[in-house]
Amino acid sequence: MSTHRCLAEGLAFPESPVVYDDGSVVVSEMAAGRITRVRPDGVTETVAETGGGPNGLARLPGGRLVVCQNGGSTFGQGPWPYDFDGCTTLFRPVGPPDHPVVPALQLVEADGRVSTLFTEFATRSGSTVPLMRPSDICVDGDGGFYVTDGGATRNRNRGMTGLLYGTVDGGLREIVYPLEMPNGVALSPDGTLLYVAETRTRRVWEFTLDGPGAVSRARGLATVPSGGPLNIGGADGLCVDAAGRILVATLGTGGVTVFSPTGELSGAIPADDPMTTNVAVSADGDTLFMTLASSGRLVMVENWRERVGAAPTSP
């Protein structure tokens, strides 16, 4: 049977686990403005101090990290998802930051040095606009990266955003617009399909790629079920395993929802934190890691595939 084990606790709103060959996991701590390595024995060490609010992480060829810097927030106990009777109280972002930084993609060197890579991108119409609140990122086989910009809400106005593609030396450009609060992003094992989760709609999009950053087709692949005490839901970070299954960190119910490559619901890996923000699997596919942000934990689940059955056949 699959078993849950807390690998680390006391993390400051962890996100975006990146699994290394030595068994360590690097996560962002959004409420602390830092990147942290969790060793297999649970010991933690600081990789880099980014300031602001580091969210999605990805590893480039050669080992450098690209960080989605969302600019920061003030964190505290607050009602979620709305402020009325019956809602739960969680540790979460509750307001603008006291010391904001410019939303950007940041580059972290092997020695922990942090530099700003991009603060803006080229739209499909050719204009240049600033990043609003970069959310998540994945790297392709060519060393390029796909980025979701989750957008920002100010008073009663919300900025619409989309999907971006870039390279370290070639800039950042928009390839899909608009999306409704795009969040998790990951590639299929062969790199021909790209998956994007929209938090508010709970929708998982599938984009067909004809080359790096070249989208030729799109379809709504699946919708994450709602659940929990208030029957709500949200799609946060996601990853794809070697069999092509799409694993989506699920807000509201907590845990991870698993879909087959063709979009059928395969099962779920539960967790006791409704703010389950992201997910990754080990290189051998046996172990699942999820960040439980409001409770500050990194949890590992061994033999997780027993919960969702045998590997699916290719579509």
UniProtKB/TrEMBL annotation:
The active site is at 236 (proton donor/acceptor). Binds 1 divalent metal cation per subunit. Its cofactor is Zn(2+). Gene3D superfamilies: TolB, C-terminal domain. Pfam families: SGL. Keywords: Metal-binding, Zinc. Signal peptide: none annotated. Substrate binds at residue 133. Residues 13-293 form the SMP-30/Gluconolactonase/LRE-like region domain. InterPro entries: 6-blade_b-propeller_TolB-like, SGL, SMP-30, SMP-30/CGR1_Lactonase. GO terms for molecular function: metal ion binding. A divalent metal cation binds at residues 183, 236. This is Gluconolaconase. It comes from Mycobacterium paraffinicum. The lineage of its organism: Bacteria, Bacillati, Actinomycetota, Actinomycetes, Mycobacteriales.
